[in-house]
Amino acid sequence: MTNLGLKIFAILSAIILWVIVINVENPDQTLVIKDINIDKLNEKTLSDSNVAVLSFSNETVDITFRGKRLALESLKDENIKAVVNVSEYTNVGKGKFNKMPIKILNVPNEIDIQIESKSPEFVRVELDETVKEYIDIKYNFIGELDNDYIMAPSELKKNRVLVTMPKTKKEALEEIVVEIDVTGAEKDRERNISIDKDKYGILEMFIEESKIELPIYKYEEYDIEKYINTEEYEVTAKPSKVTIAGTKENIDKFKDDLKEIKEEDIEEVIKYTLKDLYEKNKLEEIKIIKKKVTE
User: What does the domain layout of the chain look like in residue ranges?
Assistant: First the structure.
């Protein structure tokens, strides 16, 4: 063999050896990355068209990559993005689904790394019209007050929230329940109103009263006979003392009403009703008898 032939043979042998080494050291492999979150692109475009996502068949995707071992090792889960362009729809309404492809972004060195498969390849997206309406807020009170205090939920003024949400979800929703913890409200009566948007499928909302003050009153004991002029009358009450709570205005009115009982209003027994007050023990009756005049 001539020198030239030997040189050519040596070069070819080196190339073959290099290819063998490379394939041994850096072979073709597959890599599966599971549970990559699927982002929804262009939801703002949907919102501008008064449309919203009602259901989304898959929130994650599994991706199988093929490539050289060293190239696959450079892949980082957090850099890979899976997206669906939800603005590319054709159907709107409950039960009408759009088959939308999942696109994979941020794959480095796409020459050395290819996407072999995705599971799933598509998602089924259900869209619905959005509506904007007021919904009543219902309070669910938890916790306990001190025994000397009472809360009057009926005095809370009506509260509403203006919501934007899918039409189908709104039709199934009559009220929104907000949990209020009354523990410690004897000292701090103000409470923030917090609504879980995801729980109800609300896209946007505005609460009329974002803070409320709980109507809480302290019980006080009052001696009935003390407030009725007893110079001309004998007064007995059953019970003689009542423990009641309420606004200062209503308590003062209760006292004034007792003081203003006139002779023409007196019967042997008066059934007295405590109006706009809260009783710990019930005032059953007031008995008033005109005193006899002695000569």
Answer: 28-128, 130-217, 219-290
Token reading at 238: 């059953």
The pLDDT tens digits of the residues spanning 79-101 come to 899 999 999 999 999 899 999 99
Domains 28-128 and 130-217 alike in fold: yes
108-157 residue pLDDT tens: 766 678 889 999 999 999 999 999 999 999 999 999 999 899 999 888 98
Half-sphere exposure of 194 (CA within 13 A, CB side): 7
Residue-wise pLDDT tens digits, 55-75: 999 999 999 998 888 888 888
- For residue 108, the model assigns a pLDDT of 75
Lookup result for tokens 């003050």: 213
Separation of alpha carbons 74 and 171, rounded Å: 50
Sequence letter at residue 168: T
Beta carbons of 83 and 103 less than 8 angstroms apart: yes
3-state secondary structure 248-270: HHHHHHHHHHHHCCCHHHCCCEE
In sequence order, what are the residues at sequence separation of 6 or more whose Cβ sits closer than 8 angstroms to the Cβ of residue 65?
Answer: 30, 31, 32, 33, 72, 75, 107, 113, 114, 115, 116
Question: In whole angstroms, what is the distance from residue 33 CA to residue 73 CA?
Answer: 12
Query: For the structural domain made of 130-217, what CATH number should be given?
Result: 2.170.120.40
The CATH number that domain 28-128 falls under is 2.170.120.30
